[in-house]
Write a structure and sequence with these properties.
Elements (H helix, E strand, L loop, with lengths): L1 E6 L2 E4 L4 E9 L4 E9 L6 E7 L4 E3 L7 E6 L4 E6 L8 E11 L2 E6 L3 E6 L1
Parallel strand pairs: 2-11
Antiparallel strand pairs: 1-3, 3-8, 4-5, 4-9, 5-6, 7-8, 9-10, 9-11
Length: 119
């Protein structure tokens, strides 16, 4: 089992910045990638950014050039630096981890942290 705890959400004005953190604990050795998803009211959950254990990253087009995903392997923590925030970035942001142990792939989710961007 892997436990994920997010922090860093809050209220910010458009154009501002926030940094989200996701701390992983438990059976972390099987984790192959971690990601941030978000879900806005009335919309489906969408992938925002992903980072693999090799450091490869990818982003949804709407955040490219504004958001940066990174990780501190020693602290088992993934970050999402969000710059130039827009009202349309308002959503609950969820941390996600994919783990493969003995060939069995499992997915884990955090409880989410709310980001609100005011215009």
């Amino acid at each position: 089992q892997v436990q994920l705890v997010e922090s860093g959400g809050g209220l910010v004005q458009a154009g501002g910045s926030l940094r989200l953190s996701c701390a992983a604990s438990g059976n972390i050795f099987g984790i192959t990638s971690m990601a941030w998803y978000r879900q806005a009211p009335g919309k489906q959950r969408e992938l925002v950014a992903r980072i693999t254990t090799a450091g490869t990253t990818n982003y949804v087009d709407s955040v490219k050039g504004r958001f940066i995903i990174s990780r501190d392997a020693a602290k088992n923590t993934v970050f999402l630096q969000m710059n130039s925030l827009k009202p349309e970035d308002t959503a609950v942001y969820y941390c996600y981890a994919r783990s493969t142990v003995r060939g069995i792939m499992e997915s884990y989710w955090g409880k989410g942290t709310l980001v609100t961007v005011s215009s």
